[in-house]
Input
Amino acid sequence: STGSRNLILSVDSSGNLAVVKTPSGGAQLLASAIDRNALDGNLKNVIGTIAGDDTVVVISKSSSGGSTLAAAIKNYAKKGR
Output
């Protein structure tokens, strides 16, 4: 949804992880949207998410897929699903 895309403030990566910063209180909503998109096949490399208050850790299926995943999340933020 448009709302979940607006929750993405920044995306960084390391190894098999992408770390997404959101406004305070936005992480769980965004994690849910990412999980739905992973199930729908729109974010194919996602194995799961962990959400705090303002940070979502997105785990890639590939051991070195964090940067590819971060790029996919940034693309999702631009065009949305």
